[in-house]
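ok new one. same drill as before - structure tokens go in, u give me an amino acid for every spot. 221 of them this time. try not to just spam alanines like last time pls lmao
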């Protein structure tokens, strides 16, 4: 709620007094991240803090030192008359490593799940902004063309490229054309592979026939 209130106040301030565009963009990005962070519960935040701690180099060095000490103590315990806790090949250590790897994988997956949702939200925002920019660009070109036609001092001519740019592109149409192009490329590649395989088989058959004719000629000679 606090982040949403901050966003509304910043919008009101931007309406009252024009601010620097760079500062406005930074404030918008910070507000988006603040809203996303405000929706994280305590369990998620704890897991992500644990992931950040496990991702440090100190944790890796600690694992190496701990494993080396465990193997060293249990390997040299018998010569010194000490009781061995884990005989080689160190089944207890292997079990602990397996359990730790399982827990570490779960922690990383939980963190990546939220990061993936944030990345998807950013991609949707970028897509919406791109579509809005494309619509605005088409409208600007349309207004410029209309202004050019209305100005008597400018020679009126037909610009096919400008007329094409004034049309707003349908995203679904672009996606359909893109998928059709991919299918056509895959089909062409399959046909090319079939043609190459057929040509290879024909060359092998011709080579075999040539060898048979040479052998026949030798026998006849």
């Amino acid at each position: 709620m606090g982040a949403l209130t901050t966003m509304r106040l910043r919008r009101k301030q931007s309406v009252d007094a024009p601010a620097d565009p760079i500062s406005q963009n930074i404030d918008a990005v910070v507000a988006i991240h603040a809203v996303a962070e405000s929706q994280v519960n305590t369990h998620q935040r704890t897991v992500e803090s644990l992931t950040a701690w496990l991702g440090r180099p100190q944790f890796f060095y600690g694992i190496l030192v701990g494993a080396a000490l465990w193997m060293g103590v249990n390997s040299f315990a018998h010569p010194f008359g000490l009781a061995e806790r884990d005989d080689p090949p160190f089944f207890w250590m292997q079990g602990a490593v397996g359990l730790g790897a399982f827990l570490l994988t779960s922690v990383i997956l939980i963190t990546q799940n939220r990061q993936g949702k944030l990345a998807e939200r950013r991609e949707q925002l970028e897509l919406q902004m791109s579509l809005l920019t494309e619509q605005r660009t088409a409208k600007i070109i349309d207004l410029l063309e209309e202004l050019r036609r209305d100005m008597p001092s400018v020679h009126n001519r037909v610009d096919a490229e400008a007329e094409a740019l004034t049309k707003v592109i349908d995203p679904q149409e672009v996606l359909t054309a893109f998928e059709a192009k991919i299918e056509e490329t895959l089909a062409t590649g399959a046909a090319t592979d079939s043609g190459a395989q057929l040509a290879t088989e024909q060359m092998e058959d011709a080579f075999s026939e040539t060898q048979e004719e040479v052998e026949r000629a030798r026998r006849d000679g």
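The CA atoms of residues 10 and 118 lie 23 Å apart. and btw The chain has a mean pLDDT of 76.
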